[in-house]
Amino acid sequence: MCGVVSMMDIAKITAGQMYRYYMCRVVVGDGRRPARTPLREVQEEAGVPAGRWMGRGLAVLGLVAGEEVTEAQLRSLFGEGRHPYAERIEADRPAAGQTPAAARRAGALGRRVKVTGVDLVFRPQPTLNLLWALGDDKTREAIEAAHERAVERVLTWIEDDVAVIRFGAGGVYRTRPAHGLVAARFRHYEARSGMPLLHDHLLLSVKAQRLDGTWGSVHTEALYETAVAASALYNEVVMAEACEALGLASEPRTVTAGRRPVMDVAGVPHELIGWTARRSEQIAACLEELEHEYVTAVDGDGKPRFLPVVSERARAKLNRIAAKMTRPPKQRARPLAQLRAWWKASAILNFGVELIDSLLERARAAAAAIRSRVAAVVDVALAAVDVTAMVFVMNGGGRFHRRHLLAEARRHLALVLRGRRRDPCLDEHIVDAALAAYCLDISEPKTLRGRMSQYRLYTARWALPDLEPARRPPATVPDPDRQAPADPGAPAAHRPPHQEPGQWQTPRVPLRYDRAVLAGAVVREKLRTATAGRGRVYDAAAHQQAAMPEQLLTHRDADTVPDRPENEPTERLRRLQDAFTEAADRAHTALRALEEPSTDVEALNLTAERLRRLQDAFTKAADRARTTMDRYADREDAPAPRKVREDDQRVHRREQPGPHQGRGASR
């Protein structure tokens, strides 16, 4: 899904790369490791802690959780894909009478592979980084503990629900790791610019053991596919753990207008975030140049290589390229105490001592105001509506997998609970409710993988508008000296010759997030009205209005509708479709009423003009959406919508301490 702000990155680790990059840079705090210098000596000089082992699979390899990671262990496991004690095993076995070949087999973990692991990089939200860097030692330790618990939670979820070992011809068979996974965690304190950036590199080994005791490799594609859901889980857990420990609350913050907001600590001035993100302006300037080159690029025949507008996916790729092009060289790593002193002095110089010393008090005051009006209640039925509508609109063509719903459910919980802990399985319950009541299975699998539950293809049961299909490039290429048209079919407008490429606005495809927000409001309004006569009223004000006033748009005086036969799915869809225009008008009226100063409304940046455009988009796509849904509504294998019952409400419960048992064991 595009437009997602991720606090977790993922990259593959290859055998050769382990020596060239990780052993010389990452494991020593992103500094520069001199040749032939012992690892621990460089770490102590740089002031970074030694790496620590994590994961449930440590016991099988003779390792202990929290034990220091040595250079020989790294070289064997991640550099060669062998046992961490392979060197010792190969030295001891010949003394016991075994041949060198048998000793080498004893130190191997299955067959050798090129990709030996993945690098998961976790970093807290910018406001948490600010409190960690500028607060006292107690605040710093609380945020570091929350960060570590969030990393452990993500690793446990990967072990329980994500990691699979493929075996057999073509990897036709799949199984979960019998004893869990093995990972090495390395702590870093600063960004390349020298500004505060608490983050951990979690080097996750792909080697895992099957039930029969043989060693295999975890399928890295599954890890990449669930990276967004893993990032959403980390973002939610680290914010909740830190807020509960320090008495804080979270609020939505818009990073890019029209895109999904991120959850940050309430009460921390946003100008401080700009102080830490010094590279943002450099990346933005480079991105403008890359977008200009993108829309004006032509091949050898003079035809455009790409669309004359920048899509969300293209913009995300160009943004990554801009970040790499503007990346400064790494600096020499420094101890944390020295860094914190420099950061605080710089912040005081820029913003004053009064603001910096009162950051935590400001955040706690804002949290008290938020928690007084936001109830710690999650309605599973309402959450399922929001999650399904958002995923339907944000995914091209309205088709999605279960992992998309899971990622959106975690973002929804972070927005609703505002920094409170929740039941570890509540996200799974929301996804199950969405699949049962509001999603339609449209899978037509032709492969074995397509028949697996995680690869089933779904769409929404409602007649929501489909997204505009991507248009093909025009046959003739526009003149590079002419401004690229906003509409690919419209003639290009001349760009003034005295303007540089970055001085004129590059045409971009409209973002989908605003449409997704309005889609959820429209569907929720119709469901509330349609169920009012059957004893179930979707009263948003009683559940989440305080938490999400910009999205839960309902009216207490809504007219009820009579019962309709449950055996007429097509007729129900048509009736919902015919009422879209009316529902959009009501949603628009409610949003206009919320235009008074409000943190939540301003964070989403919903204006009357943009809402009118969104309303027009809903009306235009009505007929096309009805045709799409009619085709699938008559399928005999389509499961019937589940009726929403009163006991579907789930009240928030504080998360109980103890190890995470995984989805299957929690039910």
TrEMBL record:
Signal peptide: none annotated. Residues 468-509, 621-667 are annotated as: Disordered. Residues 621-657 have a biased composition (Basic and acidic residues). Residues 16-347 form the TrwC relaxase domain. NCBIfam families: MobF. This is TrwC relaxase domain-containing protein. It comes from Wenjunlia tyrosinilytica.
